[in-house]
Design a protein that fits this description.
Length: 54
């Protein structure tokens, strides 16, 4: 997204704002979790692919 997040999750928000609502924090953390799950799936697929080729 190109923004720096105050929650430490890296998903980002408009840096001109200092405070997020509870709903915004939940949305950002949910997005972050979803991205981590996708990354984990990709890593698992890559591991299987590499193991298959050996």
């Amino acid at each position: 997204m190109g923004y720096e997040s105050g929650c430490g999750c890296g998903s980002g928000y408009d840096s001109s704002r200092s405070f997020l609502t509870k709903e915004e924090k939940i949305e950002l953390l949910t997005e972050y979790r979803d991205n981590l799950e996708k990354e984990t799936k990709g890593v698992s697929e890559r591991i299987k692919e590499l193991q298959k080729n050996n």
